[in-house]
Structure formats: structure tokens, C-alpha cells
Amino acid sequence: MLTFKNTNRFFGVLLLFLLGYDFFYPVPLFLYIIVLIAYTGILFYGSYFVHSNFYLPVTCAAKTNQKEIAFSFDDGPADRYTESILKILKEHQVESAFFCIGKNIHGREQVLKQIHAEGHMIGNHSYTHGPLFDLLSPARMLADLQLMDQVMSEVLSLRPRLFRPPYGVTNPNLAQAIRKGGYVPVGWSIRSLDTVNRDEKRLFKKITGSLRPGAIILFHDTSQTTLAILPALIRYVKEKGYEITRLDKLLKLDPYV
Questions:
Q1: Is 205 helix (H, G, I), strand (E, B) or coil?
Q2: Domain extent for 92
Q3: In principle, which of 38, 43, 138, 257 could form an S-S bond with 159, CB 3.0–4.6 Å?
Q4: pLDDT tens-digit profile of 174-196?
Q5: Do 84 and 33 reside in the same domain of the chain?
Q6: Does some domain include residue 55?
Q7: Neighbours of 159 (CB within 10 A)
């Protein structure tokens, strides 16, 4: 299995072999460069593909043959679309998961309460979700996650157990923070890319063409495109015989500590 630990072992042995060989016979510099590029490429893959399980196991789908899927929304609560999305979900009797950013809760406490009151699950999506989050030390990452917990606890008296990495990026520091904090990392099997895809037909086709039993779909409650297609998508999914199950129920996990 391709993991960070196994990769380091392999390239460590390979480097020692090259250095040993180089002691007797000159090894061209380009071979070292090729090894470095290969190592860097594997680390990039492991970091930027959340389903790789490279640094730690991340649940990205449910293991089931039943036609059950889960909706999840990242980056809220948001002023423009979260409440409208909640209205649609309520009208269609769909329970979903909302991975919230802690700093976005401030001033939107009532929206967070509404999410919970209407039967949706709330997960941790970090407090800052900043562009430099992945450069933080394990201690600072953990502090960021715990700050999100604190804000949510002050509003709902609940602490989230499920965590979704910002941007879906993982690394050794985040793996340490997740383990130390006792979080369960959750990814997705269908990435809608609704933050960049403004074409409603393309977005609808992308999601419906990827449906599988146990799928976890990633949306953002900051996306107007998702809001626009959501009613038709729910109807389509149900017509195809799928049940939209709340994420923690689909994965059979306790959502809160």
C-alpha cells in the first residue's frame, strides 16, 4: 500500500543504494534528480488527493451495495445561500452534512442552530480555512480545529467528531493533529467543483454521471450553481432509487463527542 511511511522507506533504501554504488562507480546527477522528482510527485499525489490514504486513512465513501448516498456542504454558514439550501432540503425531507468553518459562525449563530434543529449533521472544517493552513505546525493546526470546536460548543453545546480537511489537502502535520484531537477525517467520492463550475447543466451531469452506492457528494453552501440545481438533483436521485442518508448515518459513525 502506498503510504507516507512506506514511501520514505523505499526512497531511503534507494538513496542509500545509489550513494553506495556511487562510492565505486560515478552515478550521473540526473539519476538523483529523477529520484527527487519521483519522490516529490508521490508526496504531491498523497497530499492533494484526499482518497489516497497516504498520510492517514480518510473515509471517502461508504462500503455498501445499498443505493444510499450522502450530501455534504462545505465552507458555511454563508449569508447568501445556506438558508436557501436549508429550505430546499427541508422541502424534500433530506438530511445532509454541513462542514462549517469556525470563523463563519460568528454573526450567523442562528443559521448554525437552524442547521442542527432541522436534523442536519455539523462537522469541523477548521476555524480559519486559510490559504496557509497546510503550512502550520501540528500544534497550531490542532489549536485551529479546537477553536472551531469551541465556537460550535458555545452555540450548540456540541463538539464535532467528523473533520474534513480544508481543500482536501493532507500532510504529516495534519495527520498528527487529527490523531491527537481524536477526529475522524472524512472526504468525498464525488467532488462537484461547484465553486468553479458555473454551468448548471455540466454540474448536474457531472454529479449524476458519478452516482454509486455509498457515494459522498461534496457541495459548497457558498455556490449559487449548487443552489440552482439542488431541487432537480434531489428529484433525479430519488427517481433512480437512491436514498439520501445523513452522512454520519451512512458511515455508521457518531457525529459528536
A1: helix
A2: 68-251
A3: 257
A4: 999 999 999 999 999 999 999 99
A5: no
A6: no
A7: 15
